[in-house]
Write a structure and sequence with these properties.
The structure is a single chain. The chain is 42% helix and 23% strand. It is an alpha/beta fold and 100 residues long. It has a domain of 64 residues. Helix 4 links the parallel strand 2 and strand 3.
C-alpha cells in the first residue's frame, strides 16, 4: 500500500499494484494504514482514502483493512467512526509511554 507519508491520490493504486506483483499475488488478506495521527488522518481523508479502501475491498484486492494509530482518543474516535469496515487496529500504548 502507499505509505501514509505519500499524499497523492494517484499513488494508491500504483503502490498496491506494484506490491501485489512483488508478492506474486492478486490479493492480500490484510492491509494497514500506518502511523495515523491528526495531521496524517486529515490529509488522507482529504484525498478520499476511505472511498479507495472501499473500492479495493470490493474488487477483492484486499480482504481486510486496518490501521496503526499514534494520537489521542478524539482522533481515534474520528478514525473509527469514519469507516465501518475497519477490522484491525494497532494502538500505540505501553507501560512505559502512555502518551500518544
Amino acid at each position: 500500500m502507499a505509505p501514509t507519508w505519500r499524499h497523492r491520490r494517484e499513488d494508491y493504486d500504483r503502490y498496491l499494484t506494484a506490491q501485489l506483483a512483488r508478492l506474486g499475488r492478486e490479493h492480500v488478506g490484510y492491509s494497514l494504514r500506518h502511523s495515523l495521527n491528526r495531521n496524517v488522518w486529515g490529509r488522507l481523508r482529504a484525498l478520499d482514502l476511505l472511498k479507495w479502501l472501499a473500492r479495493i475491498q470490493a474488487d477483492g484486492r484486499v480482504g481486510r483493512i486496518g490501521f496503526s494509530f499514534h494520537a489521542g482518543f478524539d482522533v481515534l474516535e474520528d478514525v473509527v467512526d469514519a469507516y465501518d469496515r475497519w477490522t484491525l487496529s494497532q494502538i500505540q500504548y505501553n507501560d512505559v509511554d502512555t502518551r500518544p
